[in-house]
């Protein structure tokens, strides 16, 4: 049996069947967290076609895109469009029997935080949601990726998606993070090197001693921001730090089921001789705190560096673009 990356193992374990010779598979999805902003048309499509939600218990509806942050936000929503989305979201939850974290529900919050707070994200899962930063869940050894509204409708009705397998990128981060540097500096360094589209078509796996030393929240930052490089997936093999973090969360298994889960989760890693399509190496010894200076996340540099001068660019069109970028236009 050939060696496999962790990404390849997760996709393979959730593949119902191969659809063609170009990497398309029918993929089973374990979980989805939906928000009021990207899901309304999906529910409308279900109604129009007379379809039901196949497994309502695998979905969570969470209001987090349009609700105000002020107190009494349930009655002081001044945006009529936002209020309409919230009202329709509540109707969808009731009609299709899906749990809703409403505006004043103490469990409500940013969906990518709510999901792990409630123990909805477990190692080895495949999770799809209507937000590109669903890659965040890779910090827990899960494969997460964003999908569009038509795909949400298909997922609601079938619990599956047509999925094209990605290429794999190994990002090895060695050494100890210097003072004042954080996970965000690692990912900005990656962006500066490969560009805002350098990981398009790839799933990234972060490895190395610097990654192991990060907190779970730091790992979430890495996986969240990998999408800024174009990645459709980002993942870190789960370890004891992750297992301790998720232990006791509301939806986590308990007792003997927890022990059984740990045995399986502990096996989630890339094979030692797995081959990646691309490899990037970052040495933390050379890392400094980083800032972005333009309008793209790959327009970044060290805090001790300089914003590039437009006149250094010989191409007049690129020089104009650089001038506009450094002016924040």
Order of the strands making up the biggest sheet: 11-10-9-12
What can be said about the biggest beta sheet?
A: 4 strands, parallel
For the terminal residues, how far apart are their CA atoms?
A: 53 Å
Helix content: 25-40%
Coarse structural class: alpha/beta
Number of helices: 11
Second rung of CATH, namely the architecture: 2-Layer Sandwich
What fraction of the residues are assigned to beta strands by DSSP? Answer: 15-25%
Contiguous runs where pLDDT drops below 50 for at least 5 residues: none
Describe the structure.
The protein is an alpha/beta fold and 329 residues long. The protein has one domain (6-287): Aconitase, domain 3. The protein has 11 helices and 14 strands. The protein has helices spanning 6-14, 40-49, 80-96, 111-117, 149-158, 183-194, 209-213, 216-225, 240-246, 255-265, 316-326, and strands spanning 15-18, 24-28, 32-34, 59-62, 99-101, 126-129, 143-146, 160-164, 167-174, 202-207, 233-235, 278-283, 290-292, 300-302. A 4-stranded parallel β-sheet has the order 11-10-9-12. Strands 1-2-8 form a 3-stranded antiparallel β-sheet. A hairpin with a 7-residue loop joins strand 13 (290-292) and strand 14. Helix 2 crosses helix 5 and helix 6 (183-194) runs parallel beside helix 8 (216-225). It is globular. It starts with 5 loop residues before the first helix and ends with a helix. The mean pLDDT is 93.
């Amino acid at each position: 049996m050939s060696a496999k990356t962790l990404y390849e193992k997760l996709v393979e374990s959730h593949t119902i069947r191969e659809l063609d010779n170009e990497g398309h598979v029918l993929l089973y999805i374990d979980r989805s967290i939906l928000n009021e902003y990207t899901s309304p048309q999906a529910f409308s499509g279900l109604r129009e076609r007379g379809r039901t939600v196949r497994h309502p218990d695998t979905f969570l509806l969470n209001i987090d895109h349009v609700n105000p942050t002020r107190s009494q936000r349930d009655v002081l929503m001044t945006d009529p469009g936002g209020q309409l989305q919230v009202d329709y979201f509540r109707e969808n939850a009731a009609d299709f029997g899906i749990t809703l974290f409403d505006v004043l529900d103490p469990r409500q919050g940013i969906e990518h935080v709510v999901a792990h707070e409630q123990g909805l994200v477990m190692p080895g899962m495949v999770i799809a949601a209507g937000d590109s930063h669903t890659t965040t869940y890779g910090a827990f050894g899960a494969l997460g990726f964003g999908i569009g509204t038509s795909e949400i409708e298909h997922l609601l009705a079938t619990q599956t998606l047509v999925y094209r397998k990605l290429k794999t990128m190994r990002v090895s981060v060695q050494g100890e993070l210097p003072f004042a540097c954080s996970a965000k500096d690692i990912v900005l360094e990656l962006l500066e090197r490969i560009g805002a589209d350098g990981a398009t078509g790839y799933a990234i796996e972060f490895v190395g001693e610097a990654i192991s030393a990060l907190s779970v929240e730091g790992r979430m930052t890495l996986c969240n921001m990998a999408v800024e490089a174009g990645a459709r997936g980002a993942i870190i093999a789960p370890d004891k730090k992750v297992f301790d973090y998720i232990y006791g969360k509301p939806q986590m298994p308990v007792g003997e089921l927890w022990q059984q889960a740990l045995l399986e989760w502990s096996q989630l890693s890339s094979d030692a001789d797995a081959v990646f399509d691309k490899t990037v190496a970052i040495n933390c010894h050379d890392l400094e705190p980083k800032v972005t200076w333009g309008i793209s996340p790959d327009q970044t540099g060290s805090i001790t560096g300089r914003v590039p001068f437009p006149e250094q660019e010989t191409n007049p069109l690129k020089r104009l673009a650089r001038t506009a970028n450094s002016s924040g236009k």
